[in-house]
C-alpha cells in the first residue's frame, strides 16, 4: 500500500468488507500480497495476524470477534516480545512503535519485573493494559489490516469495538492454520532480526513460536478438579498430585487456552498423546463433559461462544493440518 492509502485506512472508523465469493486461490493471493508486498514500519501486521489466528476459533455464530477478544492475545504477544524479550518493534531506531510505547510506559509505571511474562501480571492489571493497547490498535492496526487484505478479510466498527470476519476467511484460517502461523512467525522474526541487535535475536524463531504459550496451566487444573475430575481422561486411572493439564486439540494447532479444550491426564497418557489427536470416541466424551459444564453458571464465562461444533471443527481441521492420531 502507498503511504497516503495506509493513513486513510488507519483512520477509518467503519470498514464494510467487499461482498462476494472468493475462491481459495483468491484468498491465497491476498495472503501472498499481505506477506510479501508493502513496506512495514512496525511488526503490527504480523502481531495482529498472529492474534487473529489464535482467536479465530472463538468467533460467535455471526463470525464476530470483539476487540477485547483479539487484543488480549495481541497485548500478550507484545508484552512478551517487548518486556520479556526486549525486542524493538519499529523500523526506526528513533521512533518507538506506539504499542511498544504504551507497554513500556505501563511496565515502568507499575514497576513490573522484566522477567515476568504476561501471565504473571495480575488480572486487573492485564485488563487495564489491554484497554490501553486496544486504544492504540484502533488507530494503527484494525484499518490497516483491512486495507492490506483489499477490504476482503472482515468488516469492522471502531465504536462498537467489533470485527465481523468474512466466513470464507474463518474457514481458510482453520484449514491452513498451521502453515499460516509458521509463515507469519517467520516474517515476524525476519523483521525483528533486522531491527534488533544480534544478542537479542538468538533463538528468535522459537521465541516467536512460543511467545503466547502459557507457562502454567494450574488455573485450569484447579477448575477441573473443583468440577469433580479425579481420573485421567484417557485411561481412567485415579489422579493424585500428578495430574497434567492436556490440550485435547493440540496447542500447536489451537494456539489458545480454552477450558472447553482442557482435560486432566496422567503423566503417561499426557506424554504419549503429546502433539497428537485423541481417538474419535474421546471426542464424544469431551463434548459430553463440556455439555455438563456449560450448564453451570460458575463456568459460563469460560464457555463464551462455545458449542460442540468448535470441538468437531477443530478436530477435523487438525487432521487436515497434518496432526496424527494417537
Ligand atoms: Zn492415563
TrEMBL record:
Pfam families documented for this protein: HNH_4
Keyword Nuclease part of the UniProt annotation: yes
What lineage is on file? Bacteria, Bacillati, Bacillota, Bacilli, Bacillales
What is the source species?
Kurthia zopfii
HNH nuclease domain segment(s): 219-271
Name by which UniProt lists this protein:
HNH endonuclease
The UniProt keyword set, sorted, is: Endonuclease, Hydrolase, Nuclease
The answer to whether the entry has keyword Glycoprotein is no
Q: Which GO terms describe its molecular function?
A: endonuclease activity
Q: Which InterPro entries match?
A: HNH_nuc (IPR003615)
Amino acid at each position: 500500500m502507498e503511504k497516503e492509502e495506509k493513513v486513510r485506512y488507519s483512520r477509518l472508523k467503519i470498514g464494510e468488507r467487499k461482498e462476494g465469493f472468493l475462491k481459495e486461490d483468491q484468498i491465497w493471493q491476498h495472503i501472498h500480497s499481505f506477506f510479501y508486498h508493502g513496506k512495514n514500519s512496525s511488526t503490527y501486521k504480523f502481531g495482529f495476524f498472529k492474534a487473529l489466528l489464535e482467536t479465530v476459533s472463538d468467533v460467535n455464530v455471526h463470525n464476530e470477534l470483539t476487540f477485547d477478544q483479539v487484543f488480549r492475545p495481541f497485548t500478550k504477544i507484545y508484552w512478551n516480545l517487548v518486556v520479556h524479550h526486549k525486542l524493538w518493534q519499529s523500523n526506526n531506531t528513533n521512533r518507538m512503535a506506539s504499542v511498544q510505547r504504551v507497554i513500556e510506559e505501563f511496565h515502568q509505571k507499575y514497576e513490573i519485573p522484566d522477567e515476568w511474562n504476561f501471565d504473571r501480571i495480575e488480572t486487573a492489571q492485564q485488563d487495564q493494559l489491554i484497554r490501553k493497547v486496544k486504544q492504540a490498535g484502533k488507530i494503527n492496526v484494525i484499518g490497516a489490516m483491512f486495507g492490506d487484505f483489499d477490504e476482503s478479510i472482515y468488516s469492522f466498527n471502531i465504536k462498537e469495538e467489533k470485527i465481523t470476519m468474512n466466513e470464507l476467511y474463518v474457514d481458510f484460517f482453520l484449514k491452513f492454520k498451521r502453515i499460516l502461523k509458521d509463515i507469519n512467525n517467520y516474517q515476524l522474526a525476519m523483521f525483528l532480526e533486522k531491527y534488533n541487535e544480534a544478542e537479542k535475536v538468538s533463538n528468535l524463531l522459537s521465541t516467536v513460536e512460543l511467545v503466547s504459550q502459557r507457562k502454567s496451566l494450574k488455573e485450569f487444573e484447579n477448575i477441573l478438579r473443583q468440577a469433580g475430575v479425579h481420573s485421567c481422561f484417557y485411561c481412567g486411572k485415579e489422579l493424585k498430585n500428578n495430574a497434567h493439564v492436556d490440550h485435547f486439540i493440540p496447542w500447536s494447532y489451537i494456539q489458545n487456552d480454552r477450558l472447553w479444550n482442557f482435560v486432566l491426564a496422567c503423566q503417561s497418557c499426557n506424554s504419549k498423546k503429546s502433539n497428537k489427536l485423541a481417538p474419535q470416541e474421546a471426542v464424544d466424551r469431551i463434548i459430553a463433559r463440556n455439555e455438563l459444564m456449560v450448564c453451570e453458571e460458575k463456568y459460563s464465562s469460560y464457555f463464551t461462544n462455545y458449542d460442540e461444533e468448535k470441538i468437531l471443527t477443530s478436530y477435523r481441521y487438525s487432521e487436515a493440518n497434518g496432526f496424527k492420531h494417537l
